[in-house]
């Protein structure tokens, strides 16, 4: 997946999985989407913004957001 289209498709796919998981409040599906996001985002940042220090900050923000969503899903499930 070295081409921009592949990276964009991967980002859209994992974003869709996380979105559906949040709507359905499905924690296992959310976990799969979160792993996918944490695998593809560093590659996208390094490919599109090489040599910049954006990757750590993007991952920190995404990680915090994913943890907050996971806690919200876990607390709102019946």
Structure, described:
By secondary structure, the chain is mostly helical. Helices cover 85% and strands 0% of the residues. It has three helices and no strands. The longest helix is centred in the C-terminal third of the chain and has 23 residues. The model has no long low-confidence stretch (mean pLDDT 88).
How are the SSEs placed, and which strands pair?
Blueprint: H1 4-24, H2 27-48, H3 54-76
Helix pairs in contact: 1-2, 2-3
User: Which class best fits the helix and strand makeup?
Assistant: mainly alpha
What is the N-to-C succession of helices and strands? HHH
Rg from alpha-carbon coordinates: 13 Å
Helix content: over 70%
Cα shape: flat
The helix tally amounts to 3
> Whole-Å distance between the termini?
39 Å
Strand portion: under 5%
Please report the total strand number as a whole number. Answer: 0
Keyword list:
mainly alpha, 78 residues, 3 helices
Give a quick summary of the entry:
With 78 residues, this protein is mostly helical. It has helices at residues 4-24, 27-48, 54-76.
């Amino acid at each position: 997946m070295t081409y921009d289209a592949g990276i964009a498709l991967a980002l859209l796919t994992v974003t869709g999985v996380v979105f559906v998981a949040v709507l359905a409040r499905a924690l296992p599906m959310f976990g799969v989407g979160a792993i996918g996001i944490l695998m593809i985002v560093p590659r996208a940042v390094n490919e599109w913004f090489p040599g910049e220090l954006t990757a750590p900050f993007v991952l920190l923000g995404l990680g915090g957001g994913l943890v907050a969503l996971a806690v919200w899903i876990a607390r709102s499930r019946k």
